[in-house]
Automatic annotation (TrEMBL):
The keyword Oxidoreductase applies. GO terms for molecular function: NADPH binding; oxidoreductase activity, acting on NAD(P)H. Keywords: NADP, Oxidoreductase. InterPro entries: ADH-like_C (IPR013149), ADH-like_N (IPR013154), ER (IPR020843), GroES-like_sf (IPR011032), NAD(P)-bd_dom_sf (IPR036291), Quinone_OxRdtase_PIG3 (IPR014189). It comes from Rhodovulum euryhalinum. Residues 16-326 form the Enoyl reductase (ER) domain. This is NADPH2:quinone reductase.
């Protein structure tokens, strides 16, 4: 297959708001050992993209400076020592960066087949959120059937994924969201109770239920001490982002006396091997649920690649429910 030497892309011209994203032309990347080259059809838009754009989440030194951590398309070239995907396969993949472009390279072990019944647009919305939720809620957080699980930002891409997966694996699911409409969406996805954080105190709601066994939080700030109060004895808090900031005063006596666990992670800096293990777990335990229609990506909106600025504005407005995608091809 003959490939073009250059490709359309969207780059970050300087740290700032959505308007610093600009269409550009870049060389088509060349896959290295263990990597595949994907011609993308769609790319997912995620909060870490906006953090990178704002100058708050620098890519690793070895990764593309282009934003974009997930996408779906066709494998068009293989680097040395690749096993698994073949040229012509349709895949969705977790990306180290570079997803806002026509072509992207990623380790072959981070690519998964497009689940049966899904199109490329839907598949592009799977990797970043499903890798994040699976690794933090089930691997790190240890959620099991019957436990009370609270996810903040229930109408976000992470939230809609976490609600569905926790529900299908038998947990009692609670979620916070910022409007009656968003709360209704959370309940429709499997939440037992959705809490409008503008009108109710999630701490009181969870304490009335006996406390949360596990909380997944991306808000941070003053939510941290409130999360501690909302946990049941021996409960776990997993922190994955800080929309309200990473610093807060916390009374750790409660953590000690009630035997609480506070942990957290970010996905991008983890080793290729760690991400490959998450991918293998998803393929075995979650991909069959997607193929059966029991768990599906929730779609919000689609924008052309060249209009990534509008996609970022949509995401940062917090008006969306579910995933935002860029149409690349």
């Amino acid at each position: 297959m003959t490939l073009s030497a250059t490709m359309r892309a969207v780059e970050i011209t300087e740290a700032g708001g959505p308007d610093v994203l600009r269409p550009a032309e870049r060389p088509v990347p060349v896959p290295g050992a263990g990597e595949i080259l994907i011609r993308l059809a769609y790319a997912g838009v995620n909060r870490p993209d906006a953090l990178q754009r704002a100058g708050l989440y620098a890519p690793p030194s070895w990764a593309s400076d282009l934003p974009g951590l997930e996408g779906a398309g066709e494998v068009v070239a293989l680097g040395p020592d690749v096993s698994g995907p073949a040229v012509g396969d349709l895949v969705c993949a977790l990306l180290p960066g570079g997803g806002y472009a026509e072509y992207v390279v990623t380790p072959a072990a981070h690519a998964l087949p497009v689940p049966e019944g899904l199109d490329l647009k839907q598949a592009a919305c799977l990797p970043e959120t499903f890798f994040t939720v699976w690794s933090n809620v089930f691997q790190r957080g240890g959620l099991v059937a019957g436990e009370r699980f609270l996810v903040h930002g229930g109408s976000s891409g992470i939230g809609t994924t976490a609600i569905q997966l926790a529900h299908v694996f038998g947990a009692r699911v609670f979620a916070t969201a910022g409007s009656p409409e968003k709360c209704a969406a959370c309940v429709a996805l499997g939440a037992e109770r959705a809490i409008d954080y503008r009108e109710e105190d999630f701490v009181e709601v969870l304490r009335a239920e006996g406390g949360a066994d596990l909380i997944l939080d991306m808000v941070g700030g003053d939510y941290l001490p409130r999360n501690v109060r909302a946990l049941a004895d021996e409960g776990r808090l997993v922190q994955i982002a800080f929309l309200k900031g990473p610093k807060v005063e916390l009374n750790f006596a409660q953590v000690m006396m009630r035997r609480l666990t506070i942990t957290g992670s970010t996905l991008r800096p983890q080793s290729d091997l760690a991400k490959a293990r998450i991918a293998a777990d998803l393929r075995e335990k979650v991909w069959p649920l997607i193929a059966a229609g029991r768990v599906l990506p929730v779609m919000d909106s689609e924008f052309p690649l060249a209009d990534a600025t509008a996609a970022h504005a949509r995401m940062e407005s917090s008006a969306h429910v579910g995933k935002i995608v860029l149409k690349v091809a």
